[in-house]
Amino acid sequence: MRCKKAKPMKHYRQLRTLVQRLRRKNRTAGSSAADYEVFTQDGSYQRVSAANRAATLADTTAQQHPGQTVHVWGPGEQHLYCCTAEQEPQAQQRRAGFDTDASIAIELVMWVNNQQVPYRQLQAVIKNMTRKMAANRYDTEQAVKGFMYAAESGAKDYAAEFGGQWHEMFPKSVRLMAAEMLRDEFEAEVDLNPQDYGQHVHKKHLPEWEKRYSQAASTRAAATTTDQLLTDVTHQLDWNPHAALDLALQVLSIAGHGDDAVDALDLEAQHQDPDYRQQPVNPDIQDAVLAVVGADLDAVAQFAVDLLQEVNWSKMARTVREYFFGPDQQRYPDPYQGPVADNQRDTAVATTQETVMTQNRPPSRRRR
User: Fold this and answer.
1) 1 within domain boundaries
2) Closest alpha carbon to 332 in 292, 289, 302
3) For the region Disordered, what residue ranges are annotated (predicted)?
């Protein structure tokens, strides 16, 4: 019996999902200098002190919260956070205020995007909104009503899974907030990748819609220059380190080597951990992501390089380094630097790539 082949881009999509969770929580947590909450692997989230922002989730759980109160709340009691007795009044206020609604709405959005029944409803809404947008009849305020159908479908599906009344677990204010998040995601994706939505456009509006392709391509081409990337990373680090990490992952994809890198990581994880396929997010990868949250530009770039060097992929590490710092600056050691000539270096890298992919492939279970 053959082993399942690793799905391309699996790790990259999981990392993006985790980063999106962290980024949205950061928006509602207030100042970056204050305590904040992070999502755990099972979908809950935990309060983390600003002093330990760079600690891994495992260390935080083991060392930071001894003797503190654990509060469980939210739809299906899927959320938790820890706080001291002095923090309890503020915790109650946060639990009863906007942050509570925002957290539940984020959970609903994640459920809609990852469950079959509500996702089908979401795709129907997206198809309708895309046609309206192509016909110049799209209204961003009225679009929320359409995405409310997807939010309600997700709420009903969530209640069916965990039990309870869907309209009590997700009040109208929360569903409205989730619908606005879904609308914002849709509009951002259309602006970035309009070609992915051309299949929904009526043929009489297709020529006008295709103009978006060239405009979006020009925007992406401008954003891939080194100066623009450095500007974006520096600017986003000022207000949102999670967005900077997300941009670092985008650089891996822009470099053109992301598919091979995450595929090799996926194979390596399956080889080392037989139960890997049952884990929604690899704990080692999750800890690595949490460890650089709130870090500076060098740490974010180092994470991108380490992610590639984990499979000894030096050439891709150099590619990412050049995107961040330019081709003339060598911030991190290059194992092929020095006496190895350029042509020998390329040959060595190609051999390394082939060897790594062979070594990382899980052993075959086919009967002989």
Assistant:
1) no
2) 302
3) 327-368
